[in-house]
Amino acid sequence: MIKDEWFTVQRIDEQTFAISEYGHWEKVHSFLLMGDEQAVLIDTGLGIDNIKRITNQLTDLPIAVITTHVHTDHIGSHGQFERIYVHEGDEDWLVNGIEGLPIDQIRKDIGRDISLPTPDTFDPDTYLPFQGEPTGLLKDGDLFELGNRRLKIYHTPGHSPGHIAVHDETNGYLFTGDLLYDTTPVYAFYPSTNPIDLVNSLQKISEIPNISKIFGSHNTLGLDPKLLEEVKTAVNYLRRNGLAKFGTGVHPFNGFSVKF
C-alpha cells in the first residue's frame, strides 16, 4: 500500500480506493473507482497537496473526475485532470467561484487545525480554489460505463444546488458526498443551501436499492447501509415537525445529524 506524508490510501476492494486527508480538520475522502477500461475519481480533495501523485501510483487508466459538489474541499486538485464533470446546478460556482464564500473565509478554513506537515507548495495566505470550465455537465440518471462497472448519478441538491450522489451499481457502493456522513452534522444552514431540498435528497437516496456500503466524503470511512432506514425516519420526523428550514439548529439521529 502507498505510504504518503499527506494522503492516506485505503483499499476498499481491488478496484476501489479511498484517498483521505486526515491531517486536516475536515477529514476529506476522495474515491478512485477503476473499471476495465477507465477510472473515475470522485472529487479531488482540498488541494493542499496534489492528489494526482496518488492516482498515478494506483492506475494508468484514463481518469474522469466526477464532482459531488463545488465546495473548496472537493475540487482542490481539479486543475490536475483533463476531464472534469459537474452537475449544471454547480457549474457557475466551478467557473466563477463559490457563491457567498469570500476568499478570506476560504483561506481561514483551509489553513486551520492542520495536524500533519504540509508541502512547501501550500500557503494558506495565497491559496486559491480551482476555477475552470468543466468537460461536461451531469444530470440525474446519467450513467458512467467503466468496463464491467457502471455508475449512476443521482442529483441530490440541498447542501449545494448541484450536489450529486454516485451509486456504483456493480458493487452496491453509494458515494454520498456531503449529503450523508457521520460524527459531524450535515450542513444546510448557509444561505447557498436549501433545507427542503436536502430533506428531499435524503429521502431519494434512502430509496436506492441494493446498497452494500455507504461512503460519505468526511469522517468514518464506510457506513452500514442500515443507516438508510434511520434516514427515512429522520425525513419523516423533520417534515412532520416543520423543521426543514433555516435556524432550527442541529437535529441528531441514530448515526448522523443535520444542521439547518
What does this structure look like?
With 260 residues, this protein is α/β, with parallel strands linked by helices. The protein has a single domain, classed as Ribonuclease Z/Hydroxyacylglutathione hydrolase-like (Metallo-beta-lactamase, Chain A, 4-Layer Sandwich). Helices cover 18% and strands 26% of the residues. The chain has helices spanning 52-58, 91-96, 103-111, 195-206, 227-240; strands at residues 8-13, 16-21, 28-34, 39-42, 63-66, 83-87, 136-138, 143-145, 150-155, 164-168, 173-177, 186-187, 213-216, 250-253, 256-259. The strands form three sheets. A seven-stranded mixed sheet has the order 1-2-3-4-5-6-7, with no helix packed on it. A five-stranded mixed sheet has the order 8-9-10-11-13. Strands 12-15-14 form a three-stranded mixed sheet. Strand 8 (143-145) and strand 9 (150-155) form a beta hairpin. Helix 4 (195-206) packs antiparallel against helix 5 (227-240). The longest helix is centred in the last third of the chain and has 14 residues, at 227-240. The chain is globular, with a radius of gyration of 17 Å. The mean pLDDT is 96.
**What class would the helix/strand composition place it in?**
alpha/beta
The number of distinct helices, counting runs of at least 4 residues, comes to: 5
Beta-strand percentage? 25-35%
Helix-strand topology string: EEEEHEEHHEEEEEEHEHEE
Largest sheet: 7 strands, mixed
- Order of adjacent strands in the largest pleated sheet: 1-2-3-4-5-6-7
CATH class: Alpha Beta
What's the rounded overall pLDDT mean?
A: 96
- Which CATH architecture? 4-Layer Sandwich
Overall shape: it is: globular
Q: How many structural units, i.e. domains?
A: 1
Enumerate the spans where pLDDT stays under 50 for 5 or more consecutive residues.
none
Q: Work out the helicity level.
A: 10-25%
Strand element count = 15
The termini sit apart by 40 Å
CATH fold title: Metallo-beta-lactamase, Chain A
What is the CATH H-level superfamily?
A: Ribonuclease Z/Hydroxyacylglutathione hydrolase-like
Rg, Cα atoms, Å: 17 Å
